[in-house]
Specification:
Layout: E1 4-10, E2 27-28, E3 31-32, H1 33-44, E4 48-53, H2 57-63, E5 70-73, H3 80-85, E6 97-102, H4 110-123, E7 127-133, E8 142-145, E9 151-155, H5 162-165, E10 169-178, H6 179-186, H7 202-209, E11 214-218, H8 231-251, E12 255-256, E13 263-264, E14 269-270, E15 275-276, E16 281-283, E17 287-288, E18 293-294, E19 299-301, E20 304-305, E21 310-311, E22 316-318, E23 321-322, E24 327-328, E25 333-334, E26 339-340, E27 345-348, E28 351-353, E29 356-357, E30 362-365, E31 368-370, E32 372-374, E33 379-380, E34 385-387, E35 397-399, E36 404-405, E37 410-412, E38 415-417, E39 422-423, E40 428-429, E41 438-439, H9 451-469
Parallel strand pairs: 1-4, 1-6, 4-5, 7-11, 12-15, 13-16, 14-17, 15-18, 16-19, 18-21, 19-22, 20-23, 21-24, 22-25, 23-26, 24-27, 25-28, 26-29, 27-30, 28-31, 32-35, 33-36, 34-37, 35-38, 36-39, 37-40, 39-41
Antiparallel strand pairs: 2-3, 6-10, 7-10, 8-9
Length: about 475
C-alpha cells in the first residue's frame, strides 16, 4: 500500500453547538473529539498527520499537544475544499494517498477506514469516498449515483432538488485521494451558488470530468460516520463510545453491574476482577488495579489505585495514589497530592490534602489531614484537625510511626509528633511531642457540686413568679 498522509479538518466554529468553544474541542469521554480522530490516525500508522486549524486555532493546537501532527492555518473558513487546499504546500511532492478526515467523528472505527483505503488501492481510484445510509438524511449532502451505480456527484442539501433530497445515501465527508489528482483538482473548484463556499465534493466532479475513477464505500454502521453538530449528538456519541469501552472492559474481566449508569473516560484503565457499582465515574488518566471494589456514587479523577482497594459510597478522589489493600469512605475526599500506603484507611467524612498516610495507618472519621507526612500504624481519632494554614502560608505536620492521636485534637503546624507518642483527646498541640511521650493540653476541669440543681430551681422560680402576681 502507498504511503498515507492524513489531513484532519478542524478549523470550523460549529455554530449549531451554541458554544463559545470550537466544535472539535468539545469532550467525548473526557477528551476533545479531535483527539479521538488523531488516535485513529496513529493506529492507522499514517506517515504524517496534518491538522487544518482556523477558529480558536491556538486552543485546537493545545488540544492536539502530545500527538505527532503538523498544523496549517485556514484563516478564513471558506469551505471544506478551501480547508484541504491550505495543506497543498505541505503536501507538495507527495505521491501517495491523502486521507481526508474531519475532526468531529469520534465514533469512526479503524476497520471502516482500512476498508476505505483498501478499496481505494484495489480500484486504483483517483478518489474514494465514504458514505452511509440514513433513515433521516437531513442536513447531509446526498450521493447521486448513475444507472450503473457509479458516483456522479454529491449534492449539498441546500442545493438539492426535492427528488435528490429523498436519497438516503449521504456523504460522510471522509475521503481517500490520489495525491497528484486531488491537488490539481482543488484549484478547479468553484464556489457554491448558495453559500459561496468551496465544497470538497466538487473535486469528484472535476475528477470525473477528466475520466478519472471515483469510487464510494458504504460504512456498515452509519453511526460511525456521523459528525457531531449539536449537544444532543455529542451526548449520543459519548454514550455509544462509553458502551464500546465498557464492553471491552467487561471482556477483559471487569464486573460492571450497570453499564448504563457507569461513566468511564477513554484513557482510564481497569484491572480484572474489579467491581464497579452503578453511578461510579472514572475520569482522566485514572488507573484501577485488580480486585478492587468501587461502590455507588464515587468519582475518581487522575487517580491510581493498587490491587484490592475498596472505595465505599460517595467518595471523591483527585490526583491521588492509593496502594494495595486500602479502604476509603464512605464519603471520603482525597484532594490532589494525597498518597495512601498499603492497607491504610481513610474513613467517613474525612478530607485529605497533599499528605502521605503511612502503611496500616487509620484516619477513621470526621477528620482533616492537610500537608502532612504520616508514618506507619498511626491512629487518628475522630474530629482531629491539622491546622496547616496561618492565613499566609501552608505548614507541614509530621506524625511518626505508631503515634496515637486522640479524638478532637488540633495539630497546629509546623509541628512534629514523635514515634509511639500519645496525644490526649481534646488537646491543641503546637509544640513538638517527643517519642513515646504523652501530650496533654487541656484547661483544668472544675466541678461545682449542686450547681446544676440550683440553676434548675432558680429557672423554675422565675417562671412561677409572674403567675402568682396575676
Amino acid at each position: 500500500m502507498r504511503d498515507i498522509v492524513a489531513v484532519v479538518m478542524a478549523a470550523g466554529e460549529g455554530t449549531r453547538m451554541k458554544s463559545v468553544r470550537a466544535k472539535v474541542l468539545h469532550p467525548v469521554l473526557g477528551r476533545p473529539m479531535v483527539a479521538h480522530v488523531l488516535d485513529l490516525c496513529k493506529r492507522l500508522k499514517v506517515k504524517r498527520t496534518i491538522v487544518v486549524v482556523g477558529y480558536q486555532a491556538e486552543a485546537v493546537k493545545e488540544a492536539c499537544a502530545g500527538a505527532a501532527v503538523e498544523f496549517v492555518l485556514q484563516a478564513e473558513q471558506r469551505g471544506t475544499a478551501h480547508a484541504v487546499l491550505q495543506a497543498a504546500e505541505a503536501l507538495k511532492g507527495f505521491d501517495g494517498t491523502i486521507l481526508v478526515l474531519t475532526g468531529d467523528v469520534p465514533l469512526l472505527g479503524e476497520e471502516t477506514v482500512r476498508a476505505l483505503l483498501a478499496h481505494h488501492e484495489k480500484k486504483r481510484a483517483a478518489a474514494t469516498m465514504l458514505t452511509g445510509t440514513l433513515a433521516d438524511p437531513t442536513g447531509y449532502g446526498r450521493v447521486i449515483r448513475g444507472s450503473g451505480g457509479a458516483v456522479l456527484r454529491v449534492t449539498e442539501e441546500v442545493e438539492a432538488t426535492p427528488r435528490e433530497r429523498k436519497v438516503k445515501e449521504i456523504n460522510a465527508g471522509l475521503y481517500a485521494f490520489a495525491a497528484p489528482a486531488i491537488l490539481k483538482a482543488l484549484t478547479e473548484v468553484r464556489p457554491s451558488r448558495v453559500k459561496g463556499e468551496f465544497y470538497l465534493p466538487e473535486v469528484l466532479a472535476a475528477l470525473r470530468g477528466r475520466r478519472q475513477k471515483v469510487e464510494a464505500v458504504r460504512a456498515s454502521d452509519p453511526a460511525e460516520v456521523l459528525g457531531i453538530n449539536t449537544r444532543a449528538e455529542l451526548a449520543g456519541a459519548g454514550a455509544a463510545l462509553r458502551q464500546r469501552l465498557l464492553s471491552r472492559l467487561m471482556g477483559e474481566g471487569v464486573t460492571i453491574l450497570d453499564p448504563s449508569a457507569t461513566y468511564v473516560d477513554a484513557a482510564v484503565s481497569v484491572g480484572r476482577d474489579t467491581v464497579l457499582y452503578p453511578h461510579v465515574t472514572l475520569e482522566g488518566q485514572t488507573a484501577i488495579g485488580e480486585g478492587c471494589v468501587i461502590y455507588p456514587g464515587s468519582r475518581l479523577r487522575d487517580t491510581r489505585l493498587g490491587n484490592g482497594v475498596t472505595i465505599l459510597d460517595g467518595c471523591v478522589l483527585t490526583e491521588s495514589e492509593i496502594a494495595d489493600g486500602c479502604t476509603l469512605g464512605p464519603y471520603a475526599h482525597l484532594r490532589p497530592g494525597s498518597r495512601l500506603k498499603k492497607k491504610a484507611k481513610v474513613g467517613n467524612f474525612c478530607e485529605v490534602k497533599k499528605s502521605v498516610i503511612g502503611e496500616g495507618s487509620k484516619v477513621p472519621h470526621l477528620t482533616y489531614i492537610g500537608d502532612t507526612v504520616m508514618g506507619d500504624r498511626v491512629n487518628i481519632g475522630a474530629g482531629t484537625i491539622t491546622c496547616n494554614y496561618d492565613g499566609y502560608a501552608k505548614h507541614q505536620t509530621v506524625i511518626e510511626d505508631e503515634a496515637f492521636v486522640g479524638s478532637n485534637v488540633n495539630l497546629v503546624a509546623p509541628v512534629k509528633v514523635g514515634k509511639g507518642s500519645v496525644i490526649a483527646a481534646g488537646s491543641t498541640v503546637g509544640e513538638e511531642v517527643p517519642p513515646d511521650a504523652l501530650a496533654i493540653e487541656r484547661a483544668q476541669q472544675v466541678n461545682k457540686e449542686g450547681w446544676a440543681a440550683a440553676r434548675r430551681a432558680k429557672m423554675a422560680a422565675a417562671k412561677k413568679a409572674p403567675q402568682e402576681q396575676e
